[in-house]
Amino acid sequence: MDALSYGSExxxxxxxxxxxxxxxxxxxxAQWEKxxxxxxxxxxxxxxxxxxxxxxxxxxxxAGADFLTIGIMTEEMMRGMYTGPGxxxxxxxxxxxxxxxxxxxxxxxxxxxxxxxxxxxxxxxxEPGTGSDLQSVRTMAVRDGDDYxxxxxxxxxxxxxxxxxxxxxxxxxxxxxxxxxxVSLILVEADRPGFSRGRNLExxxxxxxxxxxxxxxxxxxxxxxxxxxxxxxxxYLMQELPRERLLIGIGAVAAMEAVLGWTLxxxxxxxxxxxxxxxxxxxxxxxxxxxTEVKIARVFLDHCxxxxxxxxxxxxxxxxxxxxLTETYGRVVDTCLQLHGGYGxxxxxxxxxxxxxxxxxxxxxxSSEIMKEIIGRSL
Length: 379
Fold this sequence. Notes:
- The chain is α+β, with helices and mostly antiparallel strands.
- Helix content is 49%, strand content 16%.
- The strands form 3 sheets. A 4-stranded mixed β-sheet has the order 1-4-5-8, covered by helices on one side.
């Protein structure tokens, strides 16, 4: 199994990210959870610090770093369960679609603005009646001369309140039987007439992360806003999803490691019946199980990361990565919350926020059931 190779540049980036989080995120995150959205200024500060679009080439305003740098940023954010900033969607998903499938003009126009934090990106996949079945989206983009006219509704969109640029998954071919071949990806600027944001949705977890409904009422955009070829959108999505599922796995493992650390500290300090909680055999056995699961999770994640960096992470393995790591995260955080007793249910304790935030990991990026179906088809 290949070992991941970290160098001094990774250590420097980790230091930069940690200092930024301690100064610009940690003091304000509790208020952002109450507001349901982070500060817009945070995006510009993150851009100035070089924390956005870290693996996008420097010629487009990015840092030109490797995939390991993305993992470091996620790990540092999860150390304190700072899940409000939607940096991952912006930097590691939206920017990658533009880089891989956008025209040279699109890349030079949008990527530098995203790297600086001047422009915030979102991707609009899910619809009120369509979740994981992206072939069945109902948002339409009808060709009218040199324009598309877009009509439809999206929901559960991360960065929905701040987004200046949205990749919209549309149907450009409504012919019966077109299916996946009728799907295209189109860039929509938020200042286009007919575009509007709905309410900021109230969620169980990820309380500081804005998640919105988006509406497209005859929004007219030029054909030059299309990403890649017409009708190839579904294929593009399928090509990017293994990487996106790996990113979800990185967040799950980083969170598990943080939760285990908090729980070890708590059980060593908290006493019951005259002795620390960790001195009870049941506590030690539970923590032994958790530590073992977290260690296995890290090894599997590193294996999948090494495969990805070699271009060898296939669709079934990425599905296994996402399925097992997010399901394990759910079990781990539940056990650790129990060991905190009543305090584990208090929002001021990070394990409570981790418990609330963990649940959606088994849904977004393809539900656990979809992951099993993908794996099953490969048997």
